[in-house]
Amino acid sequence: IGVSELIMSTAIQGVLFCLLGAQPLLVIGFSGPLLVFEEAFFSVSGHRLTWWGRVWIGLWLVLLALLMVALEGSFLVRFVSRFTQEIFAFLISLIFIYETFYKLVKVGRAPVGTGPPRGQPNTALLSLVLMAGTFFIAFFLRKFKNSRFFPGRVRRVIGDFGVPIAILVMVLVDYCIEDTYTQKLSVPSGFSVTAPEKRGWVINPLGEKSAFPVWMMVASLLPAILVFILIFMETQITTLIISKKERMLQKGSGFHLDLLLIVAMGGICALFGLPWLAAATVRSVTHANALTVMSKAVAPGDKPKIQEVKEQRVTGLLVALLVGLSLVIGDLLRQIPLAVLFGIFLYMGVTSLNGIQFYERLHLLLMPPKHHPDVTYVKKVRTLRMHLFTALQLLCLAVLWAVMSTAASLAFPFILILTVPLRMVVLTRIFTEREMKYLDANEAEPVFDEREGVDEYNEMPMPV
């Protein structure tokens, strides 16, 4: 699965969801957890079985979604507390950061073999510069959004387009340095698949050169359950965040309809080798905030209040169409160095740590109590008890990372979901109800105004 497949899947599913979905404020797209699963599935199944296996996983996904909707199982999302969400988000952020430097080290690794030299001078150094430049420009412009320079509207525009600006600047830097080679993004011409020599657009579920084994068709149910866990958690938690009463939405959300629609589209897209998608948390919250109209005339010291939210389908539809049209500019996309994308991965990993209480409590482990911040979980819970809660989350994270580093990496969604009964059964015996109320409470509020150091990433402990 390459760039063209991802773009087409995002465009097609985005258009259909905007037309048929119950909550048009949701933005569906590819996410870090699904990327991790795709990589794990490819490493386990191998190239020959990946495409047919994905088709049968997609078919099982549709059946699982129908069963979940028929039993009204969306209520299960209430048991996925902040404890599990933060472990999930921290793991994905850690993977993004680790993969960035792992791939950068591979660029600078000496060629193996006794043949003629194949290395390119200064490639590793330029890749490091492009990666670091992309990250720091995007990170600075995100901080600039909540600074005190320029009018608020100008700051918002610059901050919202910080990542595209960073990519454009570093692509120009790479273009101006002509005597140093950097690997570029691979984008096929037109509407071709990424690897036309290996497959076409339509995948035969029964196999092509040889029949796909029946036992594998049945065995595909297991990875389908794992994918469904990821899509269910991301989609339903994102819908809950969008539907908070503070947003004062006039139209309700359809938890069952949206889940069934997203999973069904993913199952059908698997027949064409397109990736599965889910509700993208950060993009959905940004979309909802952009459509929120705030009151302008407020008394000194008062916060602006919500007047209305433009609940419509036009903006999401236009975004999906523009994503699809980006296939036309394949020549421009092929000018983007992979090192620039490494910088974006690093940016995604670092910024996703914002709003994760677990990450903040890790800092407190190395900080004297007198320097602890004045927040509820610090004031209401004894320091040692707070550190014990952090240590248990850290232990769960270490177990998940160990699973991800082995051949059993495909099972990480199942290990993740085990943290739900762990929190409900074990932690309630270790901590009092009052302590759990403060340590595992969802205190995040919708962010509508410009507060220094605060944006959409602070609103949710969910991975990008």
TrEMBL record:
Catalytic activity: hydrogencarbonate(in) + chloride(out) = hydrogencarbonate(out) + chloride(in)
Compartments reported by the entry: Membrane
Pfam families associated with the record: HCO3_cotransp (PF00955)
UniProt entry tagged with the keyword Transcription: no
Gene Ontology, cellular component aspect: apical plasma membrane; basolateral plasma membrane
NCBIfam families xrefs: ae (TIGR00834)
Family designation: Belongs to the anion exchanger (TC 2.A.31) family.
Protein name per Swiss-Prot or TrEMBL: Anion exchange protein
Organism of this sequence: Capra hircus (Goat)
Lineage: Eukaryota, Metazoa, Chordata, Craniata, Vertebrata
